[in-house]
Specification:
The protein is of the alpha/beta class and 210 residues long. The chain has helices spanning 20-31, 38-47, 54-63, 69-87, 111-120, 134-148, 155-177, 191-209; strands spanning 7-14, 34-37, 100-105, 126-131, 182-186. It binds BIS(adenosine)-5'-pentaphosphate. The site of BIS(adenosine)-5'-pentaphosphate has 30 residues, from helix 1, helix 2, helix 3, helix 6 and helix 8. Pfam families: ADK.
């Protein structure tokens, strides 16, 4: 579907509450990425009137488990197509090298997604891995849960999300690490410190590519 020579994809992984979304917002400002969050795309689809997947997505998210691959990949590919169409022919900062720069957050979360997306969309993706302890993530999510309105920001769902992360997503991170594609960033420290480290890392990834 996509011409891989015309896109750069960086996956953003880490546990629930590691700070993926927070840091992606900064990196978009720094580098002009198109930020696509698998979780946001799924929540939008869940709330879209008439969606055939609404109930299915709601059940998986509440249970803290991985939504079936075909749904997530379809949403992601549609969003990438839209973004590329929108930018086509425009000299937008960060896309000026003619490449669509995508920061894909919360994906791939399971080995089947990694293999399928690498096969059909982009083989050369790098991974930014935000890592911290469960204790830190739990504290952040419980705090955010007071105002987020997210159905999965409660202690029961959070514990299930941690288990899913350990069982399904850690193997994906190990898989990419074995290919030397993972840059690990300690996200235990302040938002600003994490951002500085993330910016430097992405800068390096881009200079390595040239
Ligand atoms: P998703 O929406 O991706 O949730 P998540 O991975 O659990 O991560 P969060 O969004 O909760 O946290 P985050 O790491 O982005 O942290 P944030 O920056 O918000 O996924 C939800 C569900 O959707 C999944 O469980 C699954 O069911 C489904 N899903 C998602 N992707 C899927 C896929 N690929 N396939 C199938 N199903 C999928 O920060 C958290 C809080 O901490 C914020 O309040 C923030 O202000 C604060 N904070 C951040 N950094 C710091 C810091 N350094 N110091 C202090 N506070 C901080």
């Amino acid at each position: 579907v996509f011409d891989s020579s015309k896109i750069t994809v960086i996956y953003v992984l880490g546990g629930p509450g590691a700070g993926k979304g927070t840091q992606c917002a900064y990196l978009v400002e720094d580098f002009g990425f198109c930020h696509l969050s698998a979780g946001d795309l799924l929540r939008a689809e869940q709330n879209r009137e008439g969606s055939q997947y609404g109930e299915l997505i709601r059940t998986y998210i509440r249970e803290g488990t991985i939504v079936p691959m075909h749904v997530t990949i379809k949403l992601l590919e549609n969003a990438m197509t839209e973004a590329l169409k929108e930018k086509e022919g425009k000299n937008i900062e960060g896309w000026a090298d003619g490449k669509g720069r995508f920061l894909i957050d919360g994906f791939p979360r399971k080995m089947d997604q990694a293999i399928e997306f690498d096969r059909t969309v982009c083989l050369s993706s790098k991974v930014l891995f935000f890592s911290t302890t469960e204790e830190v993530m739990l504290g952040r999510l419980l705090e955010r849960g007071k105002t987020s309105g997210r159905e999965d920001d409660n202690i029961e769902s959070i514990k299930k999300r941690f288990r899913t992360y350990e069982n399904d997503t850690m193997p994906v991170i190990q898989y990419y690490a074995s290919q030397d594609k993972v840059a690990q960033i300690d996200s235990t420290v302040t938002i600003e410190e994490v951002h500085n480290a993330a910016r430097e890392t992405v800068q390096k990834l881009f200079s390595e590519k040239q």
